[in-house]
Amino acid sequence: MIALDEMGRRAVTAKYMLQTLTEDKKNQALLQAAKGLQEGAEEILAANEKDMAAGRENGMHMGLLDRLRLDKGRIDAMAEGLRQVAALPDPVGRVLEQWERPNGLRMKKVSVPLGVIGIIYESRPNVTADAFALCFKAGNCVILKGGSDAIHSNMAIARAIRGSLGRAGVPEDAIQLIEATDRETTAAFMKCKAYIDVLIPRGSAGLIRAAVENSTIPIIETGTGNCHIYIDETADVTDSVNIVINAKTQRIGVCNACESLVIHKKIAGAFLPALQKKLAQGHPVEIRGDEAVCAILPEAGAAGPEDYGTEYLDYILSAVTVNSVEEAIAHINRYSTHHSEAIVTDNRENAEKFTREIDSACVYVNASTRFTDGFEFGFGAEIGISTQKLHARGPMGLPELTCYKYVIEGEGQIRQ
Amino acid sequence: MIALDEMGRRAVTAKYMLQTLTEDKKNQALLQAAKGLQEGAEEILAANEKDMAAGRENGMHMGLLDRLRLDKGRIDAMAEGLRQVAALPDPVGRVLEQWERPNGLRMKKVSVPLGVIGIIYESRPNVTADAFALCFKAGNCVILKGGSDAIHSNMAIARAIRGSLGRAGVPEDAIQLIEATDRETTAAFMKCKAYIDVLIPRGSAGLIRAAVENSTIPIIETGTGNCHIYIDETADVTDSVNIVINAKTQRIGVCNACESLVIHKKIAGAFLPALQKKLAQGHPVEIRGDEAVCAILPEAGAAGPEDYGTEYLDYILSAVTVNSVEEAIAHINRYSTHHSEAIVTDNRENAEKFTREIDSACVYVNASTRFTDGFEFGFGAEIGISTQKLHARGPMGLPELTCYKYVIEGEGQIRQ
Predict the structure, then answer these.
(1) pLDDT tens-digit profile of A242-261?
(2) A residues 47..106 contacting B (CB < 8 A)
(3) Does B123 score more than 80 pLDDT?
(4) Distance CA B369, CA B365 (A)
(5) Chain centroid, CA A345 distance in Å
(6) What is the DSSP-derived secondary structure letter of residue A281?
(7) How far apart are CA B318 and CA B305, in angstroms?
(8) Theoretical Cys-Cys bridge with A153: which of A90, A125, B179, B326, CB 3.0 to 4.6 Å?
(9) Assembly ipTM
(10) Looking at the complex, does the CB of residue B212 fall below 8 Å from at least one CB of chain A?
């Protein structure tokens, strides 16, 4: 096992090489890595079987076991993901702005890689390949720290990619995987500021909080989504019901799912029973509401204040009634995690007020919050969804994995 | 004295109001604040006299005393700074990108304020007014924590501005100043993540390090500059000497001053004596070089490896010789703080290699590193110079005090 310091030094050496790769060379390496994953399928599947056996032994849930499981089809999908990233435009070397100063200096703002990106993740082993591909295409080295459940799978995937990079004439250290899975290593990883430019934690709220509190590396917070939908006085009831059901139930455990309804008092009597009726036809959803909600829906339970701030990731929905769009905005800005919120309305003015005053990464008018996603946005890729304001907000694609530098050319200018 | 928590809550309330202010209203408030500073000059000068008296009593250096001192002219200059910020274009509400998705969703990426900005600074009292003006124009609330040396001056300035904001019908809490000056308060301030969106520490390396290690709020690192100038084989000797002297001696204590020379071996014999000769005509500068440098310049001292990584902020310059532009780039990327570096050359290819491979915020060809400055870049303002890669790099003007959100409009779209 390689020490963190040594991995850091290797990454820094590799990052300077990566920054000089042409788009062609990067794409060739990605295609080679895709091939390498498919050719190494047997080895990857054998490693995955070790993780699966350990999972079964530890009594891992069926759902988690399914997330962990790889098969030929899933490896093909991983390889296909790499090919798709190869086909995306290179985000590096774009001239973002250029101008000339009165003293003749020619100024250029150019997009460049971030450098070394650290990623801590707890999820499926395919993230190992996906995260590498995005970081690499944007000219970055990546150091990955996956979960212990998938360690053998992750190691096999990283090994296959490293071998392919070597064959493509590109530094293998473009991807490094931390093999230790203890918490001490994670804590030490968060302090490797000397080598790592940006740290992206992807996973549970606990992981994100640990990174916020302990990392000395600048981080991008991802993921937590207590998303609201506000049903305005003039909303179309059918649209409202469809949007809420889609946002709540289409996928239950995702950050862009709706967790809380805010309902104008004047429409609550028409909307809530219609919602309840349609919900009854699908998976049951428990509604926890304020007094007005409970008066209209006898099935609803009483919401406590902690409900309004909770990301359930479950078949539960909190609901509160308000007298105006202003009250709705105040409630949402107070309880939201600033991820995604929607208004359903026929009132142009209220829609504009809502989109202007709601302080969230993505604000929707008459659409489901479930669209907050790099692919749905048309980015062709996604490394995560940022819920902080620094650097990137909302779905992050390739351009969000770059920064910029200024290149200034003169003829001997000195400052007066 | 108001508790930090209470200040945080006030800032959050004010930030939502600020986000809805029109450009006109913001400009009127800035002009009112400028007037308020001039009308309150007497009170501000009396407060400043208290700080000056304490400084003299504590044996403060002449240079620091001069930085601390306010007079009528300096207050006028502060007011003029506010008026200049009022005249700059509003960075908020710009549509940065817009596109339509195949499902009909209309996507817009719009610039918005960051929210609440915390600034910790150790410098002159005019920063109180400057930092407020920039944050405010970009629609942000600011909570300021100045140094204890200037506390009375800072309080008087903040009071004058708050009064003016009230008269302009704008929330006074757009600017709040922390009156406690102990380290415990600073440490607690760095943990106010619930209220503050971004923290900008401006000051000594020690302050920046403390913020990196302790802040749970996303920070923007500013300031440290171990800036290099590389004299390439084909450099014009006269240009090289002029640029180095300007970058080293024009202002000694600033982050964009040159601290280290990297010299191609083939030009060292012509360049170094010419530099020494010109330096002898001005303020003496101590040169600490490698063997080759010392062989050419008998006056030079021997550089230790710690010299190459030191930001002297003094009349000292380290110097190392290299055999190629590649060696120069490797040396600089190793020792630099990634602030500003320059190449002096007549070789187009080497210039391009240098600007492509040097990993710094600002990379110059044939110009002084002293141009790294918001005003010199033409930004019309500057809140600091970022040396990190997340969010902003190099001089930060008004746009760097904003982030963005996505506004998505549909007609009932749900995700498939």
Answers:
(1) 999 999 999 988 899 999 99
(2) 99, 101, 105
(3) no
(4) 10
(5) 28
(6) T
(7) 10
(8) A125
(9) 0.95
(10) yes
